[in-house]
Amino acid sequence: VPILAAAVLLGPSGGLLVGGASQVVRGIHRRSRWNRVVFNVSTQALAGAAAGAVYAGLARLADTSNVFVLSLPVVAAGLVYFLHTLLVAVGVGTELRMSPLRVWNENSRWLWSHYAVLSVMGLLLAVAYREHGMLGAAAFAVPPLMMRFAAKQYVDHTVQNVRQLRSLNEQLSDEVARRTAMEQEVARLAQEAADAEAALKLGQLKSEFVTIASHELRTPVTSILGFAELLVELTSAADPRREMLAQVFDESRRLADLLNDLLDVSRLEAGRVTVDAAAVDLDRLVGEVIATAACGTTAHRLSVDLAPKARWVRADTGKLKQILTNLVDNAVKYSPDGGDVRVSARPDGAGGVVVAVADDGIGIPPELQGRIFDRFHRVDATETRTVRGTGLGLYIVKQLADLHGASVAVDSEPGRGSTFSIALPAADAPSPEAAAEPAGADVPVPSAMLQPAVA
Amino acid sequence: MMLMATPAAGDRTARTPTVLVIEDDPNVRTVLLLMLGTTPYRTLSAADGAEGLRIAMAERPGLILLDAELPLLHGFELCRLLKVAPETRGTTIIIISAKAEPADIARGLASGADDYVTKPFSVSALRQKVRQALEPAGA
């Protein structure tokens, strides 16, 4: 406003002076860098001087009474606008290495309305000064200044509102992000829960299937096994068919063992096997196991060696019987006729008892010893022809020992035999009378499987 | 052992002991009857629970080999009845079942059975149990 007013009233020199001075004041006020101030001063001064020159030149040419005289300030104002903004655009474009036209187009073109308003005001200020002196200029200048003050207040307030709004917006987006993360976490957990439930259901289904399948298989296997055994009994030893029938009988018995083992494994894996620990008399239990094993072989020497201080252990009678039966059966299976199978029990010196089953059979190579407790693992595939077994026995032993919190260890050398040992906590004899009672007088738990008590 | 039979009446010890087989599967029933055929005992058989109950009441066998899953009357239920009836209270009952779960075995023994044998069974071992049940030690 003052530049244009000065340019109209005082000519080019006035525009130049006021334009340059205004930028000096502005630069000092804003603490701009010196090169920027120099640039602003020169562009503004140049624009102001040019506007003044054009206005003065055109005013001289034109008839002042003519209505076209009104267009002169407009031309001058337009000149100030274009000259100033284009010079700034050239400066900025050079600094940013961008096309000045693009800079102008993006940053300065929209300013034309500002320049228009300010130009009109500068012109009116000049007219007011010429017609009414300083008083007129002041009377004219006050309302725009007040308006500017009011507008600045409005803008400041709006800026504050915008800041507040932006901060709220940030809070909101943080909240949204937090919620999204939370929802994703919930979805992940729900998925995990669903997976776990599906796995559990699958496990239950598997267990149920094995139970039903083994139950349904039991009846036909019972007939096959029964008829085979009766046929073997009825066939004389000289009859060549007896050997074949014996094979049928052996294989059916293996099938029956597999059914029992599968059922055990399925119950173990479904977590349906619980251990009911009590004081167990090893003297009696091992006696029963050995008596049962003796029924299956006449070619092995079975012996028992229990230290007097290792007679009572804390375990589940039925499960421990199953463990020892499996280990003794294995010892018989994997040792040649005439082999020794020995069950022993010794205190381990730390309040426990180590029960061991030793044989002098084929043994287990060291590299396989870590895998023999896996499901369906057998020492040697070629042995499956001669050695009857399900491949589940040691797995069941390991699982049952785990349920007792006990560990099963193997010590073996190929060709020299194997010793399986299980460490159990020792127990006190229930009472002197019970301890003194002769072994085998009464079986507390009826044998579910058919195991004749008399060898 | 626990499977020793206690003859209910003096007059029956003079007779040849009788074994009753109650089994619905014809093949398994045949196996059991053939197995008993190699023993000196008199054998009877029934194919369902109701028939088994009727024969047991009329014949008062010394031993019953009882299947669990029977038509008309379940083996466990029949066992309970036989163990309370005065006529059969002294009869030894061995349940022979395809149900091998510990819970099933416990239920079978809870019904009063003297022993519980799971299928498949060993003929020779079962025959030994039959002998033990019918011939008290020392006899």
Write the layout of secondary structure elements.
The complex is a heterodimer of chains A (455) and B (139).
Chain A: H1 2-10, H2 12-30, H3 34-61, H4 71-96, H5 100-107, H6 112-234, H7 241-269, E1 278-281, H8 282-296, E2 301-306, E3 312-315, H9 317-333, E4 340-347, E5 352-359, H10 393-404, E6 408-413, E7 417-425, H11 432-436
Parallel strand pairs in A: 2-4
Antiparallel strand pairs in A: 1-3, 4-5, 5-7, 6-7
Helix pairs in contact in A: 1-2, 1-3, 1-6, 2-3, 3-4, 4-5, 4-6, 6-7, 7-10, 8-9, 9-10
Chain B: H1 10-14, E1 18-22, H2 26-37, E2 42-46, H3 49-59, E3 63-67, H4 75-84, E4 92-97, H5 102-110, E5 115-118, H6 123-134
Commentary on this structure:
The complex is a heterodimer of chains A (455) and B (139). Chain A contains eleven helices and seven strands. With 455 residues, chain A is an alpha+beta fold. In chain A, strands 2-4-5-7-6 form a five-stranded mixed beta sheet. In chain A, strands 1-3 form a two-stranded antiparallel sheet. Chain A is rod-shaped, with a radius of gyration of 53 Å. The termini of chain A are far apart. Chain B is α/β, with parallel strands linked by helices and 139 residues long. In chain B, 42% of the residues lie in helices and 18% in strands. Chain B has a five-stranded parallel beta sheet with strand order 2-1-3-4-5, with helices on both faces. In chain B, helix 3 (49-59) packs parallel to helix 4. Chain B starts with 9 loop residues before the first helix and ends in a 5-residue tail after the last helix. The interface between A and B is medium-sized, with 36 and 32 residues.
